[in-house]
Write a structure and sequence with these properties.
CATH class of the largest domain in chain B: Alpha Beta
Oligomer: heterotrimer
Shape of chain C: globular
Strand order of the largest sheet of chain B: 6-7-8-3-9-10
Strand content of chain C: under 5%
Strand content of chain B: 25-35%
Largest sheet of chain C: none
CATH superfamily of the largest domain in chain B: P-loop containing nucleotide triphosphate hydrolases
CATH topology of the largest domain in chain B: Rossmann fold
Shape of chain B: globular
Number of helices of chain C: 15
CATH class of chain C: Mainly Alpha
Number of domains of chain C: 1
Radius of gyration of chain B: 25 Å
Distance between the termini of chain B: 35 Å
Number of domains of chain B: 2
Number of helices of chain B: 17
Helix content of chain B: 25-40%
Low-confidence stretches of chain C: none
Largest sheet of chain B: 6 strands, mixed
Distance between the termini of chain C: 70 Å
């Protein structure tokens, strides 16, 4: 690009300063806040006050933090699911649907168990049921990709809408297994108490929205981190993601690696759905459909640059945005909750753009007229 | 013989790249109605010269002349405007398009609305004028290599080229297609075009060329006209060099056969890329496969290493047949492979040295990085690998140091590997690194390993190998046992002249 | 079963198809240059909301449509800057655009949520022609923009396959290095067609709002049509005229649930029927993935790859 007699070009850096890894995400957030402020001003709201409210309701007040942590719990899962797949250039956009299927599958297990197992066994069973359901939902796109080379992008996406309608069917369209038999009001049947976990109270007498499943999510992140760092499977996926030709040279099986990564990704998203059932919902809950947890997971993963531990942080960050945003909508000067989504999208776009500056440097060179 | 003005001429052209003088005061010309071949190995400078002649590169010194007037070319488009076109070895065609669409794509003054029928007629006219059988409506993606080349040639002619530079034109062609190409060339020459062949395949070009100019090491070493051509002399000019008699040779007796390749055939996309390859490598010997790049080197290496499955024939490592066992199975039988592409294939560039060391080991469920780390530290010390540390991503290492890591892994570490396949181990390395690598290979041989050395650097092969094979168009065309290598014969074989 | 109802369904399908055709034409232009823009869903919504807001305050349909197109230009420019100039991952950028666009549309539309559309695009009055049995409602029962869309598709088809710039465009998606070697600017071509594509996508959203939407309600507005449009591009093998056929097919599958409901036909529960369009789309995608189909009808070869010229 040539501007006013000077060529502006990107030049690869020799050394990547460590501080850039932090600066780019942080700067993205700051600029996103500025952009959000512009939209807020344009629609007649006071940005600073709005942001102050957002901060308080999302992060610094007691209920704020606990709500945020509660929302972050399944978000960590979808974030992990996205990170796991995306780092291999496998674009699983179906976390949303896999999440719903996890909810359905774990609710099924929770209801079907009928209290037959003690809690310490039942809960893992329900989690596994959620994982299997999520993996099942991505199995078809994974198979199509392996066998026919169908792009997983649109196939996983379309299944999201199918899953959405499936949940609606189970609650609104039928009076079957998943419906609460005690009332004619359409809602899900509650699972047995033996597969529920009570909310954490953090040594107070207040009822929060944070559940012990949060720790399971954090453990899951740590486990995946360990898996990638230490195990052979993690090693092979790292090699393949870096250089498929090196993987071929080393005799690794590309098809197996790619298919399995997709299945694991779906399973993790499914676990998120299971956590929703074990914790706040206790049943198949159409309310989950409104949040967009699956798509948010992609943003969370991208901002964390697909690092599993960083996903925990970005999930909490975005969870706080949503919680704060909801509070803003309900406040005296209501700001649409969508501002949180705007901020999410902006942060991602900016982080994407900023990514190029990690690897490259801007150079301005005088161009002589030749 | 009066003074004929050259259609295109380079005078005293010099071109430098970092670390190498690709063209050193080179003069070359081609006349109307003539085929002038630029002969030489890879790295001789002939491709660079051709690139300068067509406008792709600009010379650092010297000048270009066309029909008596000086010429300054700023880009290939400028070259085309002056009637000079290069047909590259790797075709630049759009597979999805028809022949006609590909041919007209580069034309600047195409009308806004295209009439397919009109264009097809135009293309057909040009093709027929030079006797090139082409169906303008065929889809390029479905054509053979020879037909695609014809499309590239018609493309150049359609855009008004009088001077055509053909870069390794026979490289991707089967022998019958080579014949058809020469028919085309004769037709073009008869019509007054000037053709420059850039090639290393002396055997093929000797009959079609009116003149042959040989390049080596960036300089012109000789030039002959048709009739004067003494092929032996030409091969010598192309490949001959003062061999340092400091040859490393096996001092001890060679042992059993550890690697055996028999009747190897490999087909790809319907074209045979390896044909009836047979050879053995014994313990304590280095067998070198010489040849100009692009004659099947990578294919042989990958078939032997188990990465590719041959269409026919078999590979046996330490007595175990490994055909079809895959890369891991072949490795377990006792073979390790150092590929020529260091950073894109042999190593994972973003991963650390430690992580790369375990790439070709048997890893359990958990990767043992502790042993790898202490190994890494040891190699860094012993082989003097210059790196900030064992956790440095390998893409940050210089070529020589990356190669040391690779060799450390495949040579030193794999003590169970009795057979070693090494491809172009010293390409792009400085003198010191080359020394170090040769030292390692020599030591490995002394330890009784069987080494297959595949290299485009003839000097390297002659220095190290106990036996020399020459690979040409996927076949072994020369196999000289013993110590007395007939360099001449090897050179001829590399150029395709088989006695 | 009421034959008339099915006829109306078909007519409705053609109408819905307009959004699909416009959006997928935009995607075809973009993808033919080698850039993949997944942000269609967000662009549709942004086009709808910006058109709505402008019409709401000015009452002027043409201004509303114009602004919607402008919004498309801006958003697409962002995407192009990220993917072509900065060489970011095109998939993630497109997804970010969906999220950003959806969120922003929601945000801006909140004050007018539930408000009925201020202007309506009416069907063209063909007089007695629309009373012809069968053909009448199907062919003559649409608004001017639907007819315009078919014309646009025809024009783009001509552009792509019968003009010089169209030839160069097609080459850019398959072999940008070749186009670059001829001296044309791959960057400029990609920017131009990504932006044009974005304009079409936002226009599609605005049209939908005024022609088919009842009131501004983000959730009910597009409901995945953007993603179906992307699948439609594959179905159409990146050819504009084929997009029309596929769009009618998909439009039909989108409309069927409503018809079944209005006709009180309950073979299957409505939610299951609602899955229909997505399952159909998926099935079509699978059928088109066979190696033979891909060889003949495949995507631009370098779709999704940033173009970097080897420096000499």
């Amino acid at each position: 690009m040539i501007v006013a007699g000077r060529r502006i070009q990107l030049e690869a850096r020799l050394v990547t300063p460590k501080w850039l890894a932090f600066v780019v995400p942080v700067l993205s957030i700051v600029v996103a806040l500025v952009i959000g402020a512009v939209f807020l001003l344009a629609t007649g709201h006071a940005p600073l006050r709005a942001y102050a409210d957002l901060l308080d309701n999302g992060y610094t007040s007691f209920y704020g933090i606990t709500d945020t942590l509660g929302l972050a719990t399944p978000l960590i899962c979808t974030g992990l699911a996205a990170a796991f797949a995306f780092r291999m250039n496998l674009y699983n956009i179906g976390e949303e649907g896999q999440l719903y299927l996890g909810m359905i599958g774990s609710a099924w297990a929770g209801i079907a168990l009928a209290g037959a197992l003690p809690k310490v066994v039942a809960i893992p069973v329900v989690l596994v049921a959620g994982a299997c359901s999520g993996a099942l939902w991505v199995a078809v796109p994974a198979f199509l990709r392996a066998r026919l080379g169908t792009s997983e992008i649109v196939s996983t996406l379309l299944l999201n809408y199918v899953a959405l309608n499936l949940v609606n069917y189970f609650i609104f369209g039928s009076r079957g297994f998943f419906r609460d038999p005690t009332t004619s009001f359409p809602q899900g049947r509650t699972v047995e108490p033996s597969v529920r976990l009570g909310a954490l109270s953090f040594f107070t007498d207040k009822r929060t929205n944070t559940y012990p499943t949060l720790f399971i999510a954090i453990l899951l992140a740590a486990a995946l981190y360990w898996l990638i760092k230490r195990s052979n499977y993690g090693y092979e996926t790292a090699v393949f993601a870096d250089s498929p030709s090196t993987a071929r040279y080393a005799g690794m099986n590309a098809m197996w690696l790619q298919s399995s990564v997709l299945l694991v990704s779906g399973a993790i998203a499914g676990v998120g759905g299971a956590m929703y059932v074990i914790g706040p919902a206790g049943k198949v809950d159409p309310g989950l459909l409104q949040i967009g947890m699956g798509y948010a997971g992609i943003v969370v993963a991208a901002l964390a640059r697909y690092n599993f531990l960083a996903v925990i942080l970005t999930a909490i960050l975005f969870g706080g945005l949503r919680v704060g945003g909801a509070a803003l909508q309900a406040s005296s000067d209501p700001v649409p909750i969508a501002i949180a989504v705007v901020l999410q999208g902006s942060v991602l776009l900016l982080a994407l753009g900023g990514e190029i500056f990690r690897r490259n440097r801007l150079r301005v060179v005088k161009v002589s007229v030749s | 013989m009066g003074v004929t003005v050259a259609a295109l001429e380079a005078r005293g052209v010099t071109k430098r790249f970092p670390g190498v003088v690709a063209n050193d005061h080179v003069s070359f010309d081609v006349r109307r109605g003539e085929v002038h071949t630029l002969l030489g190995e890879n790295g001789a400078g002939k491709s660079t010269l051709a690139s300068i002649l067509c406008g792709l590169y600009r010379p650092d010194e010297g000048s270009l002349w066309r029909n008596g007037g000086e010429l300054r070319l700023s880009s290939p488009r400028a070259g085309l405007a002056n009637g000079i076109a290069m047909v590259h070895q790797h075709f630049r065609l759009v597979d999805r398009f028809t022949v006609a669409e590909n041919v007209v794509l580069g034309r600047r003054n195409l009308p806004f609305v295209l009439s397919a029928a009109r264009l097809e007629d135009e293309v057909r006219a040009v093709a027929d004028e030079f006797g090139l059988p082409l169906d303008p409506r065929a889809i390029v993606g479905e054509l053979s290599a020879g037909e695609r080349q014809r499309v590239e040639i018609v493309k150049a002619l359609y855009q008004g080229a009088d001077v055509l530079l053909l870069d390794e034109p026979t490289a991707l062609l089967a022998p019958p297609e080579v014949e058809k190409l020469f028919v085309t060339v004769r037709a073009m020459v008869a019509a007054g075009k000037s053709i420059v062949f850039v090639s290393h395949k002396l055997a093929e070009v000797v009959d079609i060329s009116d003149r042959i100019t040989v390049m080596r090491g960036g300089k012109v070493t000789g030039s002959v006209a048709r009739g004067e051509a003494d092929v032996r002399r030409l091969a010598e000019l192309m490949v001959g060099r003062e061999i340092h008699l400091d040859r490393r040779r096996a001092r001890r007796d060679v042992g059993d056969v550890l690697l055996s390749v028999s009747q190897l055939h490999l087909e790809r996309d319907g074209v045979e890329v390896l044909h009836d390859v047979n050879f053995d490598v014994r313990a304590g010997e280095i067998v070198g496969i010489a040849g100009v790049a692009g004659n099947g080197q990578r294919d042989i290496a990958e078939v032997v290493a188990g990465i590719l499955v041959p269409s026919d024939g078999g590979v046996t490592v330490c007595g175990h047949p490994t055909t079809g066992s895959g890369a891991r199975g072949t490795r377990r039988a006792g073979l390790s492979y150092v590929p020529e592409d260091r950073l894109g294939t042999g190593l994972a560039p973003s991963l650390s040295i430690v992580d790369n060391l375990v790439l070709t080991r048997d890893r359990g469920f958990i990767v043992d990085r502790d042993t790898a780390r202490s190994d890494a530290l040891r190699y860094i010390d012993e082989l003097e690998i210059k790196t900030p540390g064992p956790d440095t991503p390998t893409r940050k290492l210089s070529g020589g140091n990356a190669q040391k890591v690779l060799l450390a892994r495949e040579l030193v570490a794999m003590s169970g590997a009795r057979v070693l396949v090494v491809s172009s181990p010293t390409r792009g390395l400085d003198v010191g690194a080359v020394e170090a690598v040769h030292e390692l290979l020599d030591t490995a041989r002394a330890e009784g390993r069987a080494i297959l050395l595949i290299s485009e650097d003839l000097e390297e092969v002659l220095t190290l190998a106990d036996r020399v094979l020459v690979l040409y168009r996927g076949r072994i065309v020369h196999d000289s046992p013993g110590v007395d290598d007939d360099v001449e014969a090897i050179g001829r074989a590399m150029a395709g002249l088989v006695a | 079963m009421n034959a008339n109802a099915w006829l109306l369904t078909f007519s409705d399908a053609i109408s819905i198809a307009t959004t699909l055709i416009l959006a997928s034409l935009g995607a075809i232009l973009t993808e033919r240059s080698g850039v993949i823009n997944l942000g269609v869903e967000g662009m549709l919504l942004m086009g709808a909301v910006s058109g709505f807001l402008v019409a709401n305050s000015t009452g002027n349909l043409w201004l509303a449509l114009f602004v919607a197109v402008l919004v498309g230009v801006v958003l697409a420019t962002v995407h192009a800057a990220l993917t072509v100039s900065l060489r970011s991952n095109q998939i993630v950028s497109g997804l970010a655009m969906v999220i950003f666009g959806t969120g922003l549309a929601n945000f801006l539309g909140k004050p007018v949520e539930g408000r009925p559309r201020p202007v309506v695009i009416l069907d063209v009055d063909f007089g007695p022609l629309s009373d012809i049995p069968f053909i009448g409602p199907v062919v003559f029962g649409h608004d001017v923009f639907t007819y315009l869309t078919w014309v646009i598709a025809a024009i783009l088809s001509f552009y792509l396959h019968r003009t010089r710039p169209g030839l160069v465009l097609r080459a850019t998606g398959d072999a940008p290095a070749t186009v670059d070697a001829q001296g044309a600017s791959v960057t400029r071509i990609r920017y131009a067609h990504t932006i044009a594509g974005g304009a079409l996508m936002c226009f599609a959203g605005a049209w939908f709002m005024f022609a088919r939407g009842v009131a501004w309600n983000q959730a009910a507005t597009t409901n995945g049509i953007g993603w179906i449009a992307l699948a439609l591009v594959v179905f159409a093998s990146w050819r504009p005229l084929r997009a029309i056929i596929g769009a009618v097919l998909f439009g039909f599958s989108l409309q069927v649930p409503f018809t079944l409901q209005s006709q009180q036909i309950r073979i299957l529960p409505p939610e299951i029927v609602a899955m229909f369009p997505y399952v159909v789309t998926l099935a079509v995608l699978v059928a088109l993935s066979t190696p033979r189909a891909r060889r003949l009808l495949g995507a631009p070869k370098m779709l999704g790859q940033p173009f970097v010229r080897d420096e000499r």
